[in-house]
Amino acid sequence: MKLKIRRYRWSDLDTILALHQICLAEVGLVPGDGVYYDDDFPLIQELYLACGGDFLVGEVNSRVVAMGGLKPVDRRTAEVCRLRVHPHHQRRGFGAAMLAALEDRAVELGFHSLCGDTTLNQGAALALYQRQGWQETSRRQVGGLTVIYGEKRLESASR
User: Fold this and answer.
1) Which H or E run includes 155?
2) pLDDT tens digits, 55-64
3) Which site in 24, 99, 121, 141 is 20 to 30 Å from 34, CA atoms measured?
4) Which alpha helices (H) appear in the chain, and where do they start and end?
């Protein structure tokens, strides 16, 4: 199976919201835990696309199975958000492909570094970020969860 990565379309909204909910439930994250939120999904155009970022989806056989966004923090830094791969499609390199596509897109958009966060519950995500050269910057307790923050400088990335 080959992953085809493309830009988000408005018609993807229900599909990516469901993907988000499935992926977080898989690792025990639930609404109200202080980390889980989904109010940015109806605002992808405004929060990601219209302000200089991007939002990508990954398809297998024309079905969306992965996603990830770039939300500008400032002129030099973007935040990687909503990096998700459907549980039935994990362990096939799709997360790495999505993260690499987001990093490449960030360079194209002129960003010099990326930041992002995940939780200690999301071990596969932590391992992916480490393999891709991200550095942990801090940890914080949010509710009963440990949130791990990281960054990657793109100017030193070998792209």
Assistant:
1) none
2) 999 999 999 9
3) 99
4) 13-26, 44, 94-108, 123-131
Burial of 66 (0-12, 13-18, 19+ CB in 10 A): buried
What number of residues does the chain have? Answer: 159
Q: Are 10 and 42 in contact (CB under 8 A)?
A: no
**String of b and e for 93-125 (b: at least 16 CB within 10 Å)?**
ebbebbbebbbebbeeeebebbbbbbbebbeeb
The letter for the amino acid at 156 is: S
Q: HSE, CB side, 13 Å, CA atoms: give it for residue 159.
A: 17
The confidence score (pLDDT) of residue 157 equals: 45
Backbone phi and psi for residue 76, each to the nearest 5 degrees, phi listed first: -105, -20
For the segment 4-16, the average pLDDT, to the nearest whole number, is 97
CA distance 23 to 8: 18
pLDDT of 1:
80
Rounded to whole angstroms, what are the CA distances from 105 to 27, 68, 141? 28, 11, 31
Question: 32: pLDDT confidence band, cut at 50, 70 and 90?
Answer: low
Dihedral sign of CA atoms 93, 99, 100, 101 in order:
positive
- Tell me the CA distances in angstroms from 23 to 18, 19, 81, 111, 121, one per residue in order: 9, 6, 13, 28, 12
